[in-house]
Write a structure and sequence with these properties.
CATH topology: Metallo-beta-lactamase, Chain A
Helix content: 10-25%
Distance between the termini: 18 Å
Order of helices and strands: EEEEEEHEHEEEEEEHEEHEEH
Number of strands: 17
CATH superfamily: Ribonuclease Z/Hydroxyacylglutathione hydrolase-like
Low-confidence stretches: none
Number of helices: 5
Number of domains: 1
Mean pLDDT: 92
Strand content: 25-35%
Largest sheet: 7 strands, mixed
Radius of gyration: 17 Å
Shape: globular
Length: 257
């Protein structure tokens, strides 16, 4: 029986990627609150993050690396993390920690995972480690690019010639963006470099500072993916785009054919 390839956008940078029978989770944020940030929307269904085969950690910032969320997955869960950070995870009790560096490849079942460069700040505040930030290209029946947090960089043109899906960060968690992030326009410009068949905006609409969801207007929570789709139509009309709301699931075979 042929297995389908699916993506579930859990929210922020957390995506469940199901390829070739493997369940791979990116940068898990599974709680209602992280530091001074709170989650918007419905709670995450527990079944969504059960039986995970591997977790990809792109970098150590608190909105991408949350140890209470990782503990919800279990201390035996396999973690694929930036080189130089394994001891941090081991100190928190995680037993299957694999370090990876830019251009190195590991496998999750029959699915290949290659680490890529990401243009973003390395440091985990206030007194934490400084390690490289990573993106990942996940290759099975489809090839998927998860950039982590990154700004646009010219080397995106050389990451792959066969991308099916680019999961592109289009915002952050507040009304403004700091350096090392892409807004909808910058994310759309990457399409000329990446040349994917399909682009899905992520890193929007989920986390926000406590109380800011009550502001009016609060367009920073809802507008970025729609702005991205408009810009993408201008910069790369040959690339399909699809907005996936936090909590929703899509089947790649249905979109890509």
């Amino acid at each position: 029986m042929t297995q389908t390839s699916t993506l579930t956008y859990i929210g922020h940078a957390t995506v469940l990627i199901e390829l070739d029978g493997q369940r791979i989770l990116t940068d898990p944020i599974l709680r209602d609150r992280v530091t001074l940030l709170q989650r918007r929307g419905q709670p995450i269904e527990h079944a969504t993050f059960q039986n995970i085969d591997a977790v990809l950690i792109s970098h150590l910032h608190y909105d991408h690396l949350d140890f209470p969320s990782l503990r919800m997955l279990g201390h035996h869960t396999r973690l694929i993390v930036p080189r130089g950070s394994a001891r941090l995870f081991q100190r928190h009790g995680f037993q299957q920690v694999e370090e990876i560096y830019i251009d190195e490849v590991t496998a999750v079942g029959e699915v290949a995972v290659r680490a890529t460069y990401a243009k973003h700040s390395h440091f985990r505040h206030p007194f934490g480690l400084s390690t490289h930030c990573l993106g990942f290209i996940i290759t099975g029946p489809h090839e998927i690019y998860f950039p982590g947090d990154t700004d646009l960089f010219p080397g995106m043109a050389h990451l792959s010639n066969t991308l099916d899906v680019a999961l592109l960060p289009v915002w952050g968690w507040g009304p403004t963006l700091g350096p090392g992030h892409m807004d909808p326009l910058q994310a759309a410009k990457t399409l000329r470099l990446l040349r994917p068949r399909l682009a899905i905006p992520i890193h929007w609409g989920t986390l926000h500072p406590w109380g800011l969801d009550k502001l009016n207007p609060r367009r920073f929570l809802t507008e970025p993916p729609y702005a991205f789709v408009r810009h993408a139509a201008a910069f790369a009309p040959e690339v399909k785009t699809q907005i996936v709301e936090p909590g929703d699931r899509v089947t790649l075979e249905e979109i890509l054919g």
